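Hi all, a correction to my earlier message: I attached the wrong file for Excalibur calcium-binding domain-containing protein. Here's the right sequence:
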Amino acid sequence: MRELTMKRALVAMLIPAAIVLSSCSRAESDQDGSKQALLVDSSNFASCAEAREVGAAPLLKGEQSYRAEWDRDGDGVACETDGGAKVTTTAAPAPVEETQDSGMNGILVPGTARNRKQISSNSVSFDLSGMDLDDAAKWMGSRLPVNSDVDGMKPCDVRRFDDLYEWFWAGEVTASGVDMFSVAVLNTTPVSVVIRNAPSEPAGC
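and the right structure:
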């Protein structure tokens, strides 16, 4: 009986101590968690090391925690990770305009046309890289004023050969011939377009 009484007394002494220890442990855990949450949520890190420690790095420009003095190369990324590896973004390529002005009577050529050559004072040419003869002719034909006047000259003929598409406009008949304007797509390498203003063309249309 005496032994049982001593055991009960010992248990009575140990239970409050266990409760106290458990409470302390929970309080310490809650305190650490609150401290960690406060650190993660903070927009005022003391250093990049602190931001990296809680997994908040890298810090991007526009974020509250970003600081210009931590952005070593001025690329908008502070506290870069992985030994300073940059976080890069790939800029979208600039869009290519669908058309461009040829500089001849408002005639348009593809935006991808390159290598403009002034053949003479009355004619120019462009390379149409990436287009075959039929594609280039279809593109030009859909944008040419085939039913409208060009600089006072009226549409008069369209010609198609194995290696050539050509559109013509004719002006006034003079003693030396007819003022002509033409646009030709040629099967050269690469395919090219020639825009020509030919005053006093004897053949006419």
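Sorry for the mix-up. The CA atoms of residues 7 and 13 lie 10 Å apart.
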